Amino acid sequence: MLDSYTQGVGNADLHIDHYDLDLDYRIGPNRLSARAVLKGRVLTDTSSIVLDLTGLRVTKASVNGKKVRFSARGKKLRLTTPVLKSNQPVVIDISYTGNPEPAIGTWGDIGWEELEDGVLVAGQPVGASTWFPCNDHPSNKSQYRISVLVESEYTVVSNGSLTKTTRKAGRTRWTYESSTPLATYLATVQIGRYKYGQIPLSSGATRFGAAMLGAAKDAVAGSARDALSSAARGVASAAGKDVSVHDSSGRRTTHSRTESSVPLGVYADDHWNVAVERLGIQHGMMNLFIERFGPYPFDVYDVVVTDDVLEIPLESQPLSVLGPNHLGPEWEAERLVAHEMAHQWFGNSLTPSRWRDIWLNEGFACYAEWLWSEESGRASADERARQWWDDLSAQPQDIMLGDPGGPDMFDDRVYKRGALCLHALRLELGDEDFFAAVAEWTKRYRHSSVSTEEFIRCVSDVAERDIAEVVRPWLEELELPPLK
């Protein structure tokens, strides 16, 4: 078994290095016809290859250029092959079709989901197989090429860089490539009647004006995006002069008054103006997180704002998906914007090699919320930590942070206890060593799969002391440890 948290999913005897996905999708009837070419290697002697695929019908398959027999049972696809030797390269070519839909299970509806007018993909933890055959486990990170053909009035957003758009007979093919490896749960397709533009530094949607909005309608590839970037920077420069944000000690901060060095883009339709207005805060967030966590691990950061209200935001790589209900000025909305951005470091670049280590994703993303709270002049990180310690101490003490169990790995107590563990470590080490260790953590394991044990070793190296006993009570005990 690859992972007890997601039993029956993933294959420990296979590693996929590259996915090449060609999707032909009809939005009205929710009809998908697709071809997936997977390049990788088997990790043991075998005469079959087993992949994850949910709710879709395979029409033909080949391995290393030869047709093979295949069978589907439940959420598994088995390809019967000639004998393959351990570490032998394989090229798996699968054509498939169907009406994709979410997989319903322990963590709710996950995977490919129809919107009122479009599509979103919410893949965490095991939803990738609802739209392509895969080895669906975060320990197997891969490169991707994703090409999607849809009606031309729709925009497709996916992972990596938009490398090509081709229009023919009222339909457009959008091709994205990600040379940076990503986990299957982060692979995504978002489809809607979206416009694209870059986000100015501060509130300035009205000053953006009709020209910016008009340009955004045509922004689908590099040259258009460059033009938008130039326009956005001009507006941001003017808008940034009157921005004043203070930290919890009353000092005026610089993070929120400086344009991010990372291009920040937005895809939106009905909620374009409010998205541009509110998401300007991401410049400050990005500047703060780069200072605290180390260099941003990707080239850009985009946000898709759906027309539909969403229960929760969704992280992908290098983008996030928000609903219009996540764009408000209140803390509960703003903290989620910070949370999803932080996942680009913790979850996307550094991905857990097993689901039991999910706290490395969610603890850091939650702690990023508290850092932004302090930076934006709200409660300090220490105040947030102590408020949540009081709250958690009154709740049942029946979850272990370092091994919460599959059904509970997305319990909010994992998020908050993870953040508290990090704050306790910060109090123990002091700011200089703590943030130096975090920066080394993101540098040493950039674009890798990671574990709690590796985190402890990395921090211990930087601190020049063994920190295992500092974090052990937080990770291994049910009762909430005291906070100094």
Low-confidence stretches: 203-252
Number of strand elements: 23
CATH superfamily of the largest domain: tricorn interacting facor f3 domain
Task: Using the coordinates above, name the CATH class of the largest domain.
Answer: Mainly Beta
CATH topology of the largest domain: Immunoglobulin-like
Distance between the termini: 40 Å
Which architecture of the largest domain does the CATH hierarchy give at level 2? Sandwich
What is the CA-based Rg, rounded?
Answer: 23 Å
Major sheet: 8 strands, mixed
- How much of the sequence lies in strands comes to 25-35%
Percent in helix? 25-40%
Number of helices: 11
Name the average pLDDT: 90
Category by helix and strand content: alpha+beta
For this structure, the quaternary state is: single chain
Lateral strand order in the biggest sheet? 5-4-8-2-1-12-15-14
